[in-house]
Specification:
The complex is a heterodimer of chains A (89) and B (148). By secondary structure, chain A is mainly α. Chain A has a single domain, classed as Helix Hairpins. Chain A contains three helices and no strands. Chain B is mainly α. Chain B has two domains: 104 residues; 42 residues, no CATH class. The longest helix of chain B is centred in the middle third of the chain and has 31 residues. Chain B is elongated and about 60 Å long. Classes of the chains: A mainly alpha (89), B mainly alpha (148). At the A-B interface, helix 1, helix 2 and helix 3 of A face helix 1, helix 3 and helix 4 of B.
């Protein structure tokens, strides 16, 4: 049962990544692309968590934690650059 | 017992994946950035939250070694999602104001967006204690844009 649920969830996460990539390519404003990158990170975390559930191993949690931290830092750095023209002043 | 736990875990996985999909569909379908911000926050909180709860239940009930790594990820994501949304919306508001475009939705108040208009704090002499609302056009001073 869990394997079937993992298959459905993997399909949903991949579809979500494709939709996010559409917004990343299309996005009229720069910040649309920043938001799309942030959502892409969220979807990647979900993908890693689902793969960890599929293989029943706790090995992937460090990967998803690193994705969460790097995604947050990237978004904040992009927004800071767009606000001030500089990241660290 | 195991069957119940498996059913609960499967339901949580499918529900989390559903909310991920909802977030990305919202990101594609909604018409402007201020509305597009709503979609991914659902994906972050409900989608990732349900998936991490499912993972915790799996390792606690089916594998026999309970772990709290997932709580760490959930806590970090729940703390950073509002910060991210606020930074993106603030950068968007200031960029629209800099370019002089008027695409921002109205606030429904005499004041504009809080990023552009300072709060009504002082009382003017002739108004006998009423709050002095500044008009949005006058107070659009670009020197107030420092965010530290």
């Amino acid at each position: 049962m869990i394997e079937a649920a993992c298959l459905v969830a993997l399909a949903c996460a991949c579809l979500a990544i494709v939709l996010t990539l559409y917004r990343l390519a299309r996005g009229p404003h720069v910040l649309d692309r920043v938001l799309a990158l942030d959502t892409l990170t969220i979807n990647a975390i979900a993908l890693v968590v689902i793969v960890g559930l599929w293989y029943r191993t706790p090995m992937y949690f460090e990967a998803s934690l690193l994705f969460a931290m790097v995604g947050f830092l990237t978004t904040v750095a992009f927004c800071k650059y767009l606000l001030r023209g500089n990241v660290i002043e | 017992m195991t069957v119940i736990a498996e059913a609960l875990i499967a339901a949580l996985i499918v529900g989390g994946a559903f909310f991920l999909l909802v977030g990305s569909i919202g990101l594609v379908k909604l018409p402007d950035l201020m509305r597009r911000l709503h979609g991914p926050s659902k994906a972050t909180t409900l989608g990732i939250g349900a998936l991490l709860v499912a993972s915790m239940l799996t390792f606690a009930f089916l594998e026999g070694n309970p772990s709290v790594h997932e709580l760490l990820i959930a806590l970090f994501l729940f703390l950073t999602a509002p910060v991210t949304a606020q930074m993106i919306s603030k950068a968007y508001i200031l960029d629209e104001a800099r370019r002089g475009r008027d695409d921002l939705p109205g606030t429904g108040r005499p004041l504009g967006w809080a990023t552009l208009d300072p709060a009504p704090c002082e009382t003017e002499p002739g108004t006998s204690g009423r709050l002095a609302w500044r008009s949005p056009k006058k107070s659009l001073s670009y020197s107030a844009f420092s965010l530290g």
